[in-house]
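Record type: monomer structure entry
Structure origin: computed from sequence
Chain ID: A
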Amino acid sequence: MEGETLSLANIDQRDDAVSDVDGERRYFLMSDGSPLQVNFNIKLDAIPASFPATFTLPADNNPNIKVDLNFFNQDRDSSRMKKRIVFSEGSIEVRAMSENALDISFKGAGHPLGAMKEMFPVEGRVSFAK
């Protein structure tokens, strides 16, 4: 992201890392000592029946948001609101997803929250299992 590789080693095994709330599954992943948080949210009725599956943004979020991937980088030199990076264009490949695991890769572009014109490349992978 923004020419920098950010990683979460040893993702915290908190009880609230994965939750089903308000009709969506929410993954909130963080690690002690890392400035990065990863949030992946998907509507329960949009969870694929089989894997792998690919979501293409923004097309798959039109007219309603089905999937949301965003990051919070505490070390980003910006206002607090712009520390949240929204993945808004590109593809998200889901290889595994359950109440106990998530394996996705993504490639595309994102922007700081509230600053859609400040797009930059975002690419990576999240692999998590409780």
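Annotation 1: Residues 15-129 form one domain.
Annotation 2: The chain has one domain: 15-129.
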